[in-house]
Structure formats: structure tokens, C-alpha cells
Design brief:
It is built from eight helices and seven strands, in the order βαβαβαβαβαβαααβ. By secondary structure, the protein is α/β, with parallel strands linked by helices. It has two domains: about 210 residues, Rossmann fold; about 30 residues, no CATH class. Strands 3-2-1-4-5-6-7 form a seven-stranded parallel β-sheet, with helices on both faces. Strand 1, helix 1 and strand 2 form a beta-alpha-beta unit. The chain starts with 10 loop residues before the first strand and ends in a 9-residue tail after the last strand.
């Protein structure tokens, strides 16, 4: 049997695991043998996700967290180590946006709300850095592990409107490259740090921006489709294979990179 892609019994921590993408990835990994710990703020949703995974035969648990609070993150980490003995993979999927960090077509840079811009930077970028600091420690101790961050198409192109979110995601791509070197040089080549950059997937965060109440695409949604060679939005399940690869031994010589899963959006040219 080829063991390259075997993730059975991997202990996987997913921040932002209650979102559309996080919950889909969590279920996929659990059904492929991983022990999945969903971290999030929405306790009721998190427990429902875990119950669904368990009914499907997977192993999962929900822990309430705050990716901006190192003390809570450390408590999460200590509990996981005590219960499971190790942490093999961290998926930094927590993130989001705020209206004040968005510049709509009838606004300009002067309308940007600096406090909400900062909050978006904190949630997405600092909310990736802090969990990395906490959950990397047991990986260093066990001399193996992988961290997968969530970048975005907005990290590659300065997209209109999403000023704060794009700045944060560009920072995540840069942080990923930095950490790939930092970890390998100072700790171990057996610990890898990569990122995934999803194209356009319908989530709670962007649903109103990309779709109308009747399910048809908005003007912006149609513009995304026009620039996506596949001619459609992505399905959450289509991220799972790349995540699986990056966390498995199949990618043991891969670090500091951003894997694009976008239906060709980033390759599109007029």
C-alpha cells in the first residue's frame, strides 16, 4: 500500500472550522482517518458539525476559541495534547471581513474606516500568526508537522472593494513564505508551512456580494465568472484534495508555497 497520502490518525486542528469551507474540509479529513478538532466561536454550530462527522463514522471534537487570544489558544492546545498526545496539522482557516474595510463603487479611500480596517487585518493576519505560535510548539517537540494557511485570490491581485481583506491575505502569503524558511532553518525540515489560495467559493462572507436573493449572480459575481476559465464558482469539496496533499508525506519536500485552487482565475488574461 502506498502510504504517501495516508493521514490516518493525524491530529488536525482547524481554526475557523465552523465556516462553509472549514466544515467541509474537516469532514473530509475525518472520513479519511484524521482526528479533527474544530476551533471556532460559534459553539452550537461547531457541535452540530462534530455530531454530523461522528454520525458519518469520523472522529471529531469542537473547542471554543478566539484566534486573537493567546491564552485561550494555549488552553486549547494543552487540552488537545493531553487528550490526543500530538498535533500533526494546523489549518489556519479563520478570517472574515467588515463593511468599514470595504470601499464600495460610490466611495473612495477617504471613506475607509481605519478601526475596521485594523480589525480585518487582526482577524485574518494576526489571527493566523497567533495560532501558528501556539500550535507550532508541539510540532517542534515531536519533530514533525505541517501548517496550512488560507490565502486568497485577493493576495495576488489588488481587487476592488476589499481593501482590508486583500492587504491581510497578501500578508498571509508573505508570512507563509517567511515561516517556511524560519521553521526549516531553526527547527526541522520535517515541519512544513504552506498556504492554499482558494478562488471564488460561495460562503457566508461573500454570498451577498456575489449572488442575488434569487440565487442569480450579481454584477460582481458575473465578473468573477467571466474571469474564471472553468466558468463557475468552486465547490468547497474541491479544496480537500489539495489540503490532503499538503498535509501528507506526499508533500514532504514542499514548504513556503501557496497552492492555487481557482478554476484558472489567477491565470486568466484578456
Amino acid at each position: 500500500m502506498n502510504e504517501l497520502f495516508n493521514i490516518k490518525d493525524y491530529v488536525v486542528v482547524i481554526t475557523g472550522g465552523t465556516g462553509v469551507l472549514g466544515r467541509c474540509i474537516g469532514k473530509y479529513l475525518a472520513l479519511n482517518g484524521a482526528k479533527v478538532i474544530i476551533l471556532g466561536r460559534k459553539e452550537e454550530i461547531g457541535k452540530t458539525i462534530v455530531e454530523n462527522i461522528k454520525k458519518s463514522g469520523g472522529v471529531a471534537e469542537f473547542l471554543k476559541t478566539d484566534v486573537m487570544d493567546k491564552e485561550i489558544l494555549q488552553q486549547n492546545c494543552d487540552y488537545i495534547i493531553e487528550r490526543y498526545g500530538r498535533i500533526d496539522t494546523l489549518l489556519n482557516a479563520a478570517g472574515g471581513n467588515m463593511p468599514g474595510a470595504v470601499i464600495s463603487p460610490d466611495q473612495s479611500i477617504f471613506d475607509l474606516k481605519s478601526d475596521e480596517f485594523q480589525k480585518v487585518l487582526n482577524l485574518n493576519l494576526t489571527g493566523t500568526v497567533l495560532p501558528t505560535q501556539i500550535f507550532l510548539k508541539p510540532m517542534v517537540k515531536q519533530n514533525k508537522g505541517s501548517i496550512i494557511n488560507f490565502s486568497s485570490m485577493a493576495a495576488f491581485r489588488p481587487m476592488t472593494r476589499v481593501c482590508g481583506y486583500a492587504a491581510a491575505k497578501a500578508g498571509i502569503s508573505n508570512f507563509t513564505a517567511f515561516m517556511g524558511t524560519e521553521v526549516a532553518k531553526k527547527f526541522s525540515e520535517n515541519i512544513r508551512v504552506n498556504a492554499i489560495a482558494p478562488g471564488f467559493f460561495i460562503t457566508e462572507q461573500n454570498r451577498d456580494l456575489l449572488t442575488n436573493p434569487d440565487g442569480t449572480y450579481t454584477e460582481r459575481g458575473n465578473d468573477v465568472i467571466r474571469q474564471t476559465p472553468f466558468g463557475r464558482m468552486g465547490e468547497p469539496e474541491e479544496l480537500c484534495g489539495t489540503i490532503h496533499y499538503l498535509m501528507s508525506d506526499a508533500a514532504k519536500f514542499v514548504t513556503g508555497t501557496v497552492a492555487v485552487v481557482d478554476g484558472g482565475f489567477n491565470a486568466f488574461a484578456m
